[in-house]
Design brief:
Layout: H1 3-13, H2 15-27, H3 33-45, H4 51-84, H5 92-104, H6 106-112, H7 119-129, H8 134-162, H9 172-195
Helix pairs in contact: 1-2, 2-4, 3-8, 3-9, 4-7, 4-8, 5-6, 5-7, 6-8
């Protein structure tokens, strides 16, 4: 779905589009989640949407998506992911990378995995499959959802107030946030390597 079509549907259906796009983006159906959150922030800054209501709907879409994917992982297991994952972008390669990353530190993956496209879709399934306790997963997902939705929307809100942003360039936000996160991870690894 392009930014133009999202804008069109937002005009037609309002906040429900935000919920639906973010929910399906989290469960694995391709959607530009970071770009959408950034766009929502811009529209809030232009007084076209309510920031508080947009944040609530965004939070509910993301958090509900996380819980739904966890339930699928827990009750349907890896055979379900293996059979249907290819239809929502969960390839064997992505799954293998997620397993390695996840196994090293499940808590950090749930909490900060939102900033890594692909990982945020696989993480809740993997948490369910590995039987991480629901309460623990729920609390980490709750915190992670807040730590992702609020900053990305806020950046869009303040950036949109500061200067005009052409909607055609908004998809670059997702790429930029991914690159920033990977740079942060790389710098931390280098720092650790120097200390050992």
């Amino acid at each position: 779905m392009t930014i133009e079509s999202i804008l069109h549907y937002l005009n037609l259906y309002g906040y429900i589009v935000i919920f639906v796009c973010l929910f399906f983006g989290i469960v694995g159906i391709p959607a530009p989640e970071e770009s959408l959150l950034f766009l929502i922030g811009i529209l809030c800054g232009e007084h076209k949407l309510s920031f508080e209501l947009s944040l609530l709907v965004s939070f509910l879409g993301v958090f509900t998506g996380m819980l739904s994917a966890y339930a699928c992982g827990k009750y349907l297991g890896y055979p379900f992911v293996k059979k249907f994952g290819k239809y929502v972008g969960i390839t064997d390669e992505r799954w293998g990378k997620a397993v390695g990353f996840y196994s090293r530190n499940a808590q950090k993956t749930i909490l900060f995995g939102f900033y890594m496209p692909g990982l945020r879709q696989i993480s809740p399934y993997f948490a369910g499959i590995t039987k991480i306790p629901f309460r623990k997963f729920g609390l980490l997902s709750l915190a992670g959802t807040l730590l992702w939705t609020i900053p990305v929307m806020s950046v869009g809100f303040y950036a949109g107030k500061a200067f005009y942003i052409n909607p055609a360039y908004i998809p670059c936000v997702g790429i930029a946030s991914f690159l920033l996160f990977m740079t942060y991870v790389w710098l931390r690894k280098r720092k650790r390597a120097r200390l050992t």
